[in-house]
Amino acid sequence: MIPDIISAVLILLGGVLSLAAALGLLRFGDLLSRMHASAKPQVLGLLLVAVAIGIQFPTWATVTTLAIVISFQLVTIPVATHMVGRAGYRTKHLRRSMLYRDELAEAVDRAEARELAWERKRGIGTDHHDG
Amino acid sequence: MSSNSQEPNSQKANSQRPGVSRTTGRRPVKNRQSKGRGFVQQLVLVFFLVLLWVMLWDSVSVLSVLSGVVLALLVTRVFYLPPVVLSGRFNIIHAVIFGAWFLYSLMHASVEVAWFAFRRRAVGAGSVIACDLRTSSDLLMTLVADTASLIPGSIIIDSDRALGVLYLHVLDCDSEEKIFSGKAQVYHIEELLIRAVGSHRDLAALRATPDPMGLKGGERR
Asked: Model-level pTM?
């Protein structure tokens, strides 16, 4: 009886968190913020549902499979988020108004300035080198 | 994930300042000791692949373990990846501290982002911050990036492997204090991870700059 109640509560919480992820995807203003919504609430949601399943079927086989499911979630979600976020940033699919500060753009600018200065110093792009 | 990402300015920075390249520690050294160590690392990899295989089969039998070993060897040969350089250090107490902190932060993050989604007011502007990590190992950089992606308000956007810099997007970050706390959190993750699995070199780097925020101010590159 008590395990049933606990797992029911856990599944409900997991469902609410997954709903929050969906709502966040709809409501957040730009791509990068939406990535947060897709990455975070539903990890805990899945974890809670998995714990609930583990309580209901406490066999070794189920628990190991759940452990695999969760660990692959934890490993793959950051990679997926990273890939989408990076691709979005590089293809300039971002709203500047939704960024307060962008230190990556500053770093890219600095690197480009350095590159230009270095090429000038080496004389690349001038007739000097072709002799 | 950070190991094979090519940040736009990493190569430029590399070609310009070859002495600063942090890749030197990872070059394979051809002597017996490192060969033996490489073998041990292969064994660890194969062991975890076999463990995964057995867990998928839900039963520990001679057949499942043997087929797992064969498959693991096959997989590590066919899908050859650059060897993951383990640090050779593992502190169980700090690993437990990290695990507990991670679980707490995961819950905190999920509830926080869920609250942002449910609340009436729309979420504010974010920021992309740069974090100059103290560690120089690929493994630790990846772990820090993974952890930062899963816990409150930050996802990884890009990384500069040569210089050891991570670029993260912080949700709802529209003031200097929030940027500061976002950075402090990433450095905190790094510190916890170095104490748990970092190499002695990383530990030395940690001791050399215990307070990267105060020293760097976030702007120095």
From this structure: 0.70
